[in-house]
Design brief:
The chain has 236 residues and is of the alpha+beta class. It contains seven helices and nine strands; from the N terminus they run ββββαβααβαβαββαα. It is globular, with a radius of gyration of 20 Å.
Length: 236
């Protein structure tokens, strides 16, 4: 009878590992100028983190074909905060709603010191058509290889882009991060502006759960938009 040999257990891996935080909602005191920040599960960035903006996300293009990086976008912002909202596909119903809501709020948001960009994996041609047709006042970023989309935690598994928004200040510190529907992403930025203003004024405004609150049927509209986008992506 052949001799049975006991298999040796593999040796434990060695090295330095950083345990990342679990999915959570980070509640930040509005007296410091922050609102409640939702941190996505498996995100590669977290609110309060200072990122390596010089290398994060690699090189992408604007809708006009100009080469840019996250660092060059921050340099262009100067003292303003950089706002990047992500959308799955140009000219689909939900993405059109989201882009047009940012368009309609553009003056109010930018006069408070924000620089706004849209980001998707669409080509410059598709995003140029989208921008022109919808008369969007901000630049659109094109990331067909999803390098920046992935780096900021907006990559959908196994493929696609999560709708959301990230706010980064001049020091490359993440000031805001949220994933949600078309109207909710715009409302998140609006509340970011409102809470930042309250902080500068030395006042503390009310802090309702604005994401969960269904103002004028926004939640139902967002869900319908997400379903329409998914259906169109499947058709394509």
């Amino acid at each position: 009878m052949p001799e049975l040999r006991k298999r040796q257990a593999p040796e434990p891996a060695t090295g330095n590992f950083t345990k990342r935080p679990n999915s959570s909602t980070t509640n930040v005191n509005t007296k410091s100028g922050d609102v409640d920040r939702q941190v996505a599960k498996n995100s590669k960035i977290a609110v309060g983190e200072i990122i390596n903006s010089a290398g994060l996300g690699g090189e992408i293009e604007t809708h006009e074909g100009a080469k840019v990086t996250l660092q060059s976008l921050l340099d262009e912002c100067g003292r303003s905060n950089l706002v990047i909202f992500t959308y799955p596909k140009a000219s689909t119903p939900g993405c059109t709603t989201q882009a047009c809501l940012f368009r309609d709020e553009f003056a109010t948001l930018t006069e408070s010191g924000l620089k706004i960009y849209g980001l998707s994996k669409d080509s410059p041609k598709s995003n140029t058509t989208f921008k022109t047709k919808q008369n969007l006042p901000y630049a659109l970023l094109c990331d067909p290889k999803e390098t920046l989309i992935t780096a900021i935690g907006m990559k959908k598994s196994p493929t696609g882009t999560i709708r959301g928004v990230v706010v980064i200040d001049k020091a490359a510190k993440i000031q805001g991060f949220y994933q949600g529907g078309p109207a909710a992403t715009v409302e998140y930025v609006r509340r970011f502006v409102e809470d930042s203003k309250n902080s500068r004024d030395g006042t503390e405004g009310a802090k309702p759960d604005y994401v969960a609150e269904d103002k004028g049927g926004q939640i139902q509209a967002d869900v319908a938009a997400q379903v329409a986008d998914t259906a169109q992506e499947l058709d394509n």
